[in-house]
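Sample intake sheet
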Amino acid sequence: MLTQNNLKYSIWKIPVFFIKSLLIFIKLTNAGALIPLSKSNSVSSKLKLIIKIINFFLYKNDKLNIGIKLFNCLTKLGPGYIKFGQVLSTRPDLIGIEISDHLKKLQDNVKPFSGLIAKNIIEKETKSLINDIFISFDQIPIASASVAQVHTGILKNGDKVAVKILKPQIEKLLFNDFQFFYWGTKCIELFIPKMKRLKLSKTLKVFFNISLIELDLTMEASAADELAENFKNHLNYRVPKIHWDLTTKRILVLEYIEGTKIDDIYNLNKQKHNIEKIIKVSTEIFFLQVFRDGFFHGDMHPGNIFIDKNGVLVPIDFGIMGRLKNKDRHFLALLLTYLLDKNYKKVVEIHAEANMLGDDISYEQLAQAIRAISTPILNKPIGEVSLAKLLGQILGLSKTYNIEIQSQFSLLQKTMLMAEGTARQLRPEVNMWELSRPLINKWINETDDPFQILEEWIHKNKIILLKIPEIIDKIDKFILKK
């Protein structure tokens, strides 16, 4: 089985990786990957000049849309690159709406493997003939993404189901991509020592570990089951039913969801769904997953969230899930609150309290630096404020102010970017963080309640507490014996 340690590479692979990196850079540049950067206001004039020179020699300026070229390029490069494209597709503010629309196809429209191979995998995994399981099985997939594709079928009991099947050789392909990415992060840390504070290689290991879980569909089923348990009493959010008797490491059988993708605004309006309610519920769900449960959907792109005929949000694809400890949730809640309040001294204080700052750091200078990067973002119209982007900017200060980067927030930041991107597509003028602010403040007050803290401590240590009388009795016997 693959582990994080497998990312270590032999010395002989270094020249191969170096050549590979040059070829990939040429392919991406040829497809127009640097064009959005050349038009970005956040890029310096010197860097823009360098990009223009590179594009002059490498960019293939034909009539084909850049989004189409990038889609084709990323799908040919491999599953790791497809995942990167999926994240970019949620950021039309960075890459443009047209490119974003094309990259969205990476969420469920990647070239599939044949239906005959899919049938063979199902029969091998279940040790049953396909006709003994299904009344009907559609060999043409309804979706195909980076690591798996989905077929529909009707079980013998009449239930319509979605059957998720891992792609052949996907473990090897994904491992090769991540090992190459790991080498890239190590090179950055070696040649740019200041970048070590970003912990790029450690963060990559976190994502690799998450991807390993994604390659075991019984783990995905378990994650879906846990999420369903957390929201069993929520009226506007439900998780599809898992058919455990047919689920294995390579196939996942779950309830088929009839619904509309959350970013399909035209059909949502046509079906007379309440867009404002969808945004409000989405924000609440995000808050409850991150802060209440510390267990959140880590791949929240629009292709993974459906709205059923009753307006209920139904998530799919539970391969990437994130967890946060209570102390991390508390830090994040305070950080978001202080940023929205523009209380930059408090932002620095909570970093210090979390032991994330070096001893020689000037708190006043750091607060001023955070103000400098926060003001342009927070002073934008309310719908354009991106706390996820701001968090990224704060992380960027790590090299200057010796901030210890916490790798557990990496997946969360990616999820925040996706959530913001989706909310912005539904209603550009809405800020999901202002909507969640009352919930965050309420949660902070409750977690700071000393009686609740004591109650939680007792609950966590109840097994030890129940053994106290037994321990005292043993001590008494020991003393009497002496």
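Comment: Confidence is low (pLDDT under 50) at residues 451-455. The chain has four domains: 32-107, 115-168+216-322, 171-212, 324-447.
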